[in-house]
Specification:
Elements (H helix, E strand, L loop, with lengths): L1 H17 L39 E9 L2 E13 L5 E10 L3 E14 L3 E14 L4 E17 L2 E8 L5 E3 L4 E3 L3 E11 L2 E10 L4 E11 L3 E10 L1 E12 L2 E10 L3 E11 L3
Antiparallel strand pairs: 1-2, 1-16, 2-3, 3-4, 4-5, 5-6, 6-7, 7-10, 8-9, 10-11, 11-12, 12-13, 13-14, 14-15, 15-16
């Protein structure tokens, strides 16, 4: 099993160079990874500007399983502190298994300027375990985000992750961290129906196009449908549940070659 996991991990890194799939950025609860313009949900490492839309302090935990292999799972946690002046977010993620794993932590700050626009910055530290030297190597990189409300129903979001192309160097290999730029839009047809779209570009990779719809039913259940194009068309389906202060999201996507990805998250929003 570990040999299979090692092979698939290598495949993921190959895709990261040529298809803008990055394992260092955890998935989000937004369908088809369209979180850069999602003002209703803040997801770690996607767009720090969305911190500015918090209305109360919240805590969340996410788990993603790639291709039904535990060795290729990503676990992440985040906590956002609400403040009328500046909102603060702390995030952490872990990918991999004992022979190879990556960890990333970040602290971000954002402010919402009268619901006209929001700005956010985040400092991230990424570290990797190299079994060949039995050591950890890491580096810092910045992340900046912007969200603009063009009308009550339409907004755009922008995020730049690792814009200065930070790398990790060892005696044997140089690991280049992906520099990803994302631009997205969100349009509310009604309070219960939201359409989002997003374009991602890693500097040395192909473009990624994504779109998705959220439909709110009975004020507690949200049905999510979308997809993205990244060399292949990948359909995505999800559901969201709200019960009291808890928000639960279950998403899945089916890659035509690699198989099924599943994602689950639980968020708790403290009362004001």
């Amino acid at each position: 099993m570990k040999k299979i996991a090692s092979i698939l991990t290598s495949c993921l890194f190959y895709c990261a160079v040529y298809s803008q799939i990055s394992t260092i950025i955890p998935s989000s609860s937004s369908i088809a990874q369209t979180a850069v313009a999602d003002t209703h949900n803040w997801s770690a490492f996607t767009n720090p500007a969305m911190l500015g839309y918090l209305e109360q302090t919240e805590f969340g935990f996410q788990f993603e399983n790639r291709y039904l292999l535990n060795e290729l799972s990503t676990k992440s946690a985040q906590i956002g502190f609400f403040s009328k002046l500046i909102c603060t977010g702390i995030s952490f993620s872990h990918f991999g298994y004992s022979q190879y794993h990556e960890m990333m932590g970040g602290i971000g700050f954002a402010r919402n300027f009268s619901d006209k626009f929001a700005m956010g910055v985040q400092a991230n530290y990424f570290t990797t375990y190299f079994s060949a030297s039995n050591s950890y190597r890491g580096t810092f990189f910045p992340q900046v985000g912007l969200s603009v409300q063009l009308s009550p129903a339409f907004n755009i979001g922008f995020n730049a992750s690792n814009p200065f192309q930070s790398t990790i160097k060892t005696e044997y290999v140089t690991k280049r961290l992906p520099s990803v730029f994302s631009l997205g839009t969100g349009y509310s047809f009604s309070p219960g129906l939201i359409w989002r779209s997003q374009i991602d570009k890693e500097l040395s990779s192909n473009y990624r196009y994504a779109t998705g719809f959220d439909y709110l039913m009975l004020e507690k259940l949200t049905v999510k449908l979308g997809g993205y194009w990244l060399d292949y068309l990948v359909p995505c389906l999800g559901m969201g549940f709200k019960t009291g202060s808890f928000l639960i999201d279950l998403n899945c996507e089916l890659h035509p070659l690699l198989g099924l990805n599943t994602f689950a998250s639980v968020h708790y929003r403290f009362r004001k």
